[in-house]
Amino acid sequence: MTRLPTVEDIRGAAMRIAPHAHVTPVMTSRTIDGIAGARVFFKCENLQRVGAFKFRGACNAVLSLSDEEARRGVATHSSGNHAAALALAARIRGVAAYIVMPENAPAVKRAAVEGYGARVVSCAPTLRSREETVARVISETGAIFVPPYNDPRIIAGQGTAALELAAQVDDLDAVIAPVGGGGLLSGTAIATGSLSRARTIGAEPEAADDAARSMREGRIVPSNDPVTIADGLRTSLGELTFAVLRERGVEIVTVSEEDIVKAMRVVWERMKLVIEPSAAVPVAAVLRRLVQGARIGVIVSGGNVDLTRLPFT
């Protein structure tokens, strides 16, 4: 599939993953509404399986494989939510999963991936080592590579969160989601733009603003090993995700590290929701009133937090 995914692909993904993925709730907070100067609706993907939206895309990709492909198993390299998502999706399909993880990945994340039945292969903590190791694993096993974001099946799966949001909340003026590799944001843009009048906005850290620069310059500006608390948003856009964002005219806003920590704390304290720093990025943009509109939807991307390294003081 080389064309860009459509809303029909997202609808198809929703049907495909329906027996396995949660329809996550939408929550609100009067306190946050007051700070934001708008009604804010939180689509809680932190309550999704594996604690993140990533399960939607991984599940759709694995269930889209032919029987012949699935028998070969699946492989990826990831130290984050995609690793756990693909491991669980493979277990559901009953196929092998090979996950390449850097040797400095948190032990809790490795344990979660292994808990879903995947085989974890360690590598040095560099992109080159990740890519070389997963290539070797694929060569040895014949497994199908499932990328974390730059894949039409992944984009369609991630777009099912916005598809649900459109059915749960009427008359939104804007929907905002975080952007790293762009799978969630591009899927959100397709679903939102096809089903409503709402604008789609992406949010990223000022310290990792490659998507904002890419949209301004009309080309993919790769990230250069950015340092940000929002570790899930350090990745550069892919060719497919960038093409969707340009086609849909998605605006990107940025927030500071201080903004991210404050937003994360507000949600923990006021809404009693555990969200990870990457999920706090669009919340920070809303709290700073960088998003215009009376009714704003926020895709809360995940809730997987290293509790030994909380940023609160």
SS class: alpha/beta
Q: What is the top-level CATH class of the largest domain?
A: Alpha Beta
Strand order of the largest sheet: 1-2-10-7-8-9
CATH topology of the largest domain: Rossmann fold
Q: Can you put this structure into words, describing what you see?
A:
With 313 residues, the protein is α/β, with parallel strands linked by helices. It has 2 domains: 7-52 and 152-309, Rossmann fold, CATH 3.40.50; 55-145, Rossmann fold (3-Layer(aba) Sandwich). It is built from 14 helices and 10 strands. The chain has helices at residues 7-17, 30-36, 54-64, 67-71, 81-93, 107-115, 127-141, 152-158, 160-168, 183-195, 210-217, 239-248, 257-271, 277-287; strands at residues 26-27, 39-44, 74-77, 97-102, 119-123, 144-145, 174-178, 199-205, 251-255, 295-300. The strands form 2 sheets. Strands 1-2-10-7-8-9 form a 6-stranded mixed sheet, with helices on both faces. It has a 4-stranded parallel sheet with strand order 5-4-3-6, with helices on both faces. Helix 1 (7-17) crosses helix 3 (54-64). The protein is globular. The termini are far apart. The model has no long low-confidence stretch (mean pLDDT 95). GO terms for molecular function: ATP binding; L-serine ammonia-lyase activity; magnesium ion binding; pyridoxal phosphate binding; serine racemase activity; threonine deaminase activity; threonine racemase activity. Its EC number is 4.3.1.19. Pfam families: PALP. Keywords: Lyase, Magnesium, Pyridoxal phosphate. It comes from Sorangium cellulosum (strain So ce56) (Polyangium cellulosum (strain So ce56)).
